[in-house]
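Quick start: read one record
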Amino acid sequence: MDIIKKIREKAKAKLKTIILPEYDDARTIKAARIIEDEGIAKIIVLSKDKMDPKEQQRYIEQFYELHKAKDIDMEIVKKLFLDDTLYYAAMMAREGKVDGLVAGASHTTPDMVRSAIRCLGIDERITIISSCFIMAVPDCAYGDEGTFIFADCGVIPEPNSRQLACIALAASELGNKVLGFVPRIAMLSYSTRGSAKGRNIEKIVEALKILKEMSPDVLVDGEMQVDSAIVPEVAKIKYPDSPLAGNANVLIFPNLEAGNIGYKLVERLGNARALGPLLLGVKKPASDLSRGCSVDDIVDCTAVTAIRAQ
């Protein structure tokens, strides 16, 4: 059974309710039917006519109270809740009326991230919102039978050392929860353990120290080039004493450019499935979608979100 089938089966084991607010997107409607027909999750496709006016007003007032210290204007808040369904859906997730949120087919990543920060809230332990992709590469001997977590590929342009550590911790925990594997984390760079010098490398070295302080038992190493991270034969030559031994399955990119380019190259040239962006560091499970997503992408991101809520 491939990893996509495993994810769908795992979601079916304990049904959760996931809200899809993009009611006017044909892909979303088709995906919702598939999800319900296969029993992957309980689905609410939130259209404007399904929004209760009393609840809508309560959400507007609640949201304003949450953020008024930041000088937010009430008229702006009303516009967020009256012109679109995203914030109403996010507030339902905040209150536990649904178990998770999936959107992004017709909303930008900044739209999704802002709604997550404002409505769902940030996990105090992780302290930042970032994202990751589950990458399923066919006929691949590397990673976890061709499966990897790539992070951050969608949110933080230039993470500092602490942010890199938090991204790595959140991504590894998602890998363990959703995929059931033992995370083996590589902090990627153009250098392998001191083979080059530079400020960016110092940042990664510091991130490694911070991550080990946050989670002493985590299996992580860096800085390292990607071939040293995922190819055992190369690891033996370039970095023979690495605890990863070329078997990394969680790849942490040094910045957003590298992460975004990396996942798209693997997706297109390696014919891989890229599930995500899956938002990390939020208090409730949420998944962003690429605006170029397929119906299957929506189905599978919903399955992942359901598993995270179990």
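Strands lie at 17-20, 42-45, 100-102, 130-136, 147-151, 184-188, 219-224, 250-252, 273-280, 286-287.
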